[in-house]
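Can't paste images in this forum, so I'm doing it all in text. The chain is below; anyone willing to post the predicted structure tokens underneath?
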Amino acid sequence: MLSIDPSKNNERENYKFLIGSIIPRPIAFVTTFSKDSVLNGAPFSYFNIVSSNPPMISLSIQRSSGRQKDTARNIIESKEFVVHIVDEQNVEKINRTAANLPPDQSEIDIAKLTPVESVKISVPGVKEAKIRLECSLEHSLELGGLDSPGCDFIIGKVVQFHVDSDIYENGRIDPRGLAAVSRLAGTNYAKIGEIFSIERPE
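Text version of the structure:
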């Protein structure tokens, strides 16, 4: 087995080790409003649950050459955002939003996604997602070097759930109906495969 010291690697090498090892990763498609009310949308696979009481999720938004991404800046300024689960039906459109656009251009328009009004926050979601989570900013942290942070770590509190009624029954979400896709490395994604159960020990 190889034993590798990450302090001897450059950022790209560590990135490849992480995204190749920590798989599959859920994908959050995040909508935000800029200060000029442009609806921004971008996918992130450094995403997960933080807590269920209260319901909170996390996003880690990597900076490019120390420069904060539009999504992180918008969340920190407006304190609101919507997280959508990426699935087999919307992944192609969501992939289009990963393009580098200027802040005054909406990825939602480019990808031909349909904005839908939120209930508790001002930021719209998109209709094409089977699950969307309206979130308010709970915490934001700059991680990495003091002079040049490498990422913005965002913790959001879920203030409203939206779930497609076709995939929700008896208090549970049908994983096959949701058909979420996950991120692997490079240009690779994965679908829900074989599902198996293991009983927890008493």
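The helical segments are 11-21, 70-78, 91-96, 107-110, 175-178. The longest strand covers residues 149-163.
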